[in-house]
Amino acid sequence: MSVRKRLARLGRRFWRDARAVSAMEFALGMPLVLAFGGYGIEICNLAVTNMRVSQYALQLADNASRIGVNTGLATYQLREGDINDALQGLRLFSSNVKLTTYGRITVSSLENVEQSYDDDNVQRIHWQRCVGLKSGAGFDADSAQAPGTSAGSDGTSSTAGKSAPDGIGDAGQKVQAPDNSGVIYVEVNYQYQPLFGTVFVAPTKLHYVASVIVRDKRDFSQIYNPTPTASPSTCNKYTA
User: Fold this and answer.
1) Cis ω on the peptide bond leading into residue 228 (within 30° of 0)?
2) Distance (Å, rounded) from C-alpha 240 to C-alpha 198?
3) Is the torsion defined by CA of 141, 143, 146, 149 positive or negative?
4) How many angstroms separate the Cα of 169 from the Cα of each of 4, 106, 188, 208, 221?
5) pLDDT tens digits for 165-219?
6) What is the pLDDT of residue 127?
7) Which of 91, 172, 175, 201 lies at a C-alpha separation of 20 to 30 Å from 27?
8) Which DSSP helix (H) or strand (E) runs through 182?
9) In contact, 144 and 134? CB cutoff 8 Å
10) Residue 168 contacts by C-beta under 8 Å, 6 or more apart in sequence?
C-alpha cells in the first residue's frame, strides 16, 4: 500500500474516531467558561462592595449623630471617647472589606448655631475626625474644607473651625445644616480590592458620602474630653 493511501486511511480513521470529543470540547471551552465566570464573579463582588461601603458611610453618620452623654440640663455633651467608640464600631463591622486599611474615612460636624463669640447663627465646619491608612488626593477630604486639628477642642473662637456658608460636600451636592442644629457628614474613600487583580476591572476607588441631622439637643460649644482623657482621632493621624 502506498504512503498516500496509508495517510488517507489514517485520516479517515481519525475523522471517525469520537472517543476524545468530550475532552476536546472541554479543553476548548474551559478558557471561555473561566473568563466569563471570573468576570461575572468580579462584577458581582464590586457591586456588593459598593453597597457595603455606602452602608458603612450611612451607619457611621447615623451613629455619630446619636452619641453623647446626658448632662441633666436637657443637652448632650459630645466627648472624644464617644467619637472613638463610633470609629471603633466602623472598624469592626467593616472588617470584611478592611475599610480602614484600604480607605480613608472623614467625619465632619457642620453646625449652624450661635456660639458664645458669635452675634448670630454661623454655619461652619466645627470639627473633623478621621480614620484609615490611605492618604493623598482622592482619599483625604477636601483640604479647603479642613477646619484644623485643634478645631472644636474648646469653646473659644480660636478653635471655632472653618466658615462654610455654602455647606459641605462635593461640588453641586453640598449639604446645609438646619438653623440651631448640626449635621454629621461622613466621607468614605476606599480602594477596591479585586478578586482577580486587574484582569477584569481597572483599579477602582469607591467614594460615598452620607449626612444625618444631629438627633438630640447637642451641646455644640466643643468636644469634651474628661478624665480619663481619650486621644482625639484628628485628621493628621493615619491609623487602621
Assistant:
1) yes
2) 25
3) positive
4) 80, 12, 12, 11, 23
5) 999 999 999 999 999 999 999 999 999 999 999 999 999 999 999 999 999 899 9
6) 98
7) 201
8) strand 181-191
9) no
10) 108, 110, 125, 145, 174, 175, 183, 185
